[in-house]
Fold this sequence. Notes:
By secondary structure, the protein is mostly helical. It contains 19 helices and no strands.
Amino acid sequence: xxxxxxxxxxxxxxxxxxxYKGWSTLWLSPLAALIVAVACKMDLLExxxxxxxxxxxxxxxxxxxxxxxxxxxxxxxxxTRMAQSIATHVSRMFGSKWAIVAVVIAGxxxxxxxxxxxxxxxxxxxxxIVLFRDADIPRRLxxxxxxxxxxxYTMVCLPGTPQIQNLIPTQYFGTTAMxxxxxxxxxxxxxxxxxxxxxxxxxxxxxxxxxxxTEPSNAVLIDFDNLPNxxxxxxxxxxxxxxxxxxxxxxxxxxxxxxxxxxxxxPKDYKKFVPAINEGAKGAMMPIISVSAINGxxxxxxxxxxFAQLVESLxxxxxxxxVSMAVAVNVVCGxxxxxxxxxxITLSALADRYIQISQQTGIPLSVFHRILVIAASxxxxxxxxxxILTLLAVTGMTHKEAYRDIPMCTIILPLIATAVGIFLVSLxxxx
Length: 431
């Protein structure tokens, strides 16, 4: 192993450790790129002003409209209380007896409809308080329960999901959001069904130990009698899914249509529109810049002389090429604490290789797409993951109190689903 290849792994580990300590990837990414550039004897000024910034700007150029329109959509659904209406209606349908199932399904509807996971957390938490209180389920199980419906299978498994993680591969592989639907559904059942059953089991264990619900200090009260109609609230979500997958509209056009529908359906809330759009646009800035910074690092890695050796190392992993791809994306996702960042870096560096392998082996690119995003939902939820930090902050929990159940739902089950998916593909059973 030469010094260049070692520098890539050192840079990734450095990203992992320092990001975990709370250091921003905005400056960690160019620092990690500098380590690779120095070790590989690249021109440092050209590395930063050309290679790094082209990678940075390239991602922003492709995805900023989606990030911004998605953030605005989520904020409008939140401010008009349409998202809360959906969550409340589902929770009432199931009742406290099936509190965990209600939370998972409500979260699944919101995320599959295109609402960002961050907005979903804010919408679901008040519902969780009501349901878990009535069911006398310990509050520490709320964060992990939310992750089942919001952070995993609706994000990467279900065919047609408009979440950004499922859309990024379409730009590299020429696939669609519906890539490998049967494979996605099977893996989704493992992740969604397995996570739900696991949380029900954990709640029963807690009950046997004599644990009870404890009142939080940060619960948000909701006026359950003045929410928008449930069926009307579903219309913007349906617009995103149908236009994206049935009419094959560009995701940007689908999100514009969904945003307009929220405005049209809620004329009485017109005073909230401009502030909500402003906040949504502002909220999109940090995520897109953070992921763009990570993409800049990936561009430097790809341009380094050590990259060819990295590809060769991945080729040495025994078994299906899907295995090496899953390993690669998990390493990067774990390092960056981001599925979006991990997918972007992996594809910016290795997409051409996977396309070539697809042509050689006959494995459809749609399969590479689906396995990649499912695998990316594994190691991304390490403790320093931004979504995990937000989830714990909103629910008033600490890592010590609530993180222990999250890895089973967001790391172990996705890795199991990835393994099952690769096995089924190797048998030629599903695509």
